[in-house]
Amino acid sequence: MDYALLKRRIRGAAIEVFDPEHRSLCEDLIWNGRKPALKPRYVVRAACVEDVQLAVRFAAANGLTASPRGGGHHFTGIALNADVVIDVGGLDHLHVDLPSATAALGPGVTNTRLAAALDRQGLAFPVGHCATVPLSGYLLGGGVGWNSGEWGIACFSVIGADVVMADGELVHVAEDNHPDILWALRGAGPEFFGIVVNYRVRLQPAPKAIMTSVRVYPPSEARKVGEWAELAMACAPAHLEFTVKISAPPPEANAPAGAFVLAAIATVFSKSERDAHQVLDAFFAKAPDGAVQSVDVMPTPFGALYDLTSVSTPKGKRYAVDTLWSDGSFSEILTTLAAHYGARPSLDSFALAALYSPLANRPGDAAFSRIGKAFASVYTIWDGEGDDEANMSWLRQTMTALEPLSTGTYVGESDLERSGRPVTPHSPSAALKLATLKARHDPQGLFQPRTGTLAAHSPAA
Description:
five-stranded antiparallel sheet; alpha+beta; globular; 13 helices; disordered C terminus
């Protein structure tokens, strides 16, 4: 199949590198303001499953690599790291089956759209913390979402999928049909050897009350906050989500330049308002003195949660992000983050450190094979290309300081440009199984990424 035949047969659109709109289209496909150095030779915007199959067969027939693109939200721009980019963002069907509490979802369905649609029907799903991220890469990477302590990592709610394989065939995957492919799509991330065009997921009853309370501390209290949080979370139920956000204070605080605070944020996904209040009151009962601000228990339905989180990640900025799982001291994680945060080159950057209840839902056997009692992420955010090196260096220095505490990283928010890192998103046994499955299902390396994405603009690790 040549390019002319591809263009005639697809219902969507195909753009090649010589087309005038190619460059701007590639820029628009990546959410990050920091764009990849390499551009694909072809972009196929799929309007249906058959378009995806045609694009894969075109790539295979011409010895080209292929990559799916859902929302372009991975901060390394991995979606453009192939000869043929297949944009599945238009596959955004959303069908809920109430009797079975399941749904069929296109890869282009966003977190906020899914949360709103399910809430209207009294159902829920562990959707991601970023409103505009679609399910495509979110579920492939594992899916660390809202209330994952109770509902589990999102990929383990995937009960089936429709996948276009490297030969262009459409395979229906379930626990009893191609279970090896289902094992892999639960957390393989960019190592997956196919393109998911439909997810079938298990849903949860919607919480009757989602409530949040906050205590804000100066950085000098990092150790005390960490020690208290470890003790408090040891007795907390699985449906309590706890995160410390390290960031600059709001502009209205009139704080000195470079100042920052630690916001201890607890959100409970509860069966009643009474239960929510009881859980939050018990959790904060022995919180350290010294809070500079307290926010009493307030209702935070999913729409409000997304309003709160979206403020920190405006589109158009330049981003780099890295993460770690840890079973180490939460206090040490916080103090290490606080010690490095003051040296950030950009005041827009922030860090998150989450701590799970010992009652949290643990993952099963899947490609998603790294987890810990704590999760930390550092979001480096800046404006100009001239500041790339300073911000990337700060991010990597901060993560290097945390590595002795790490049990692994989360592929959905990993610095994949960094070479030679000692922690990986997959356990050794899972990585070996993934490599074996890739060799079996994609022997020609159709979905093997090219080298040289954003790393071309970044200092060496």
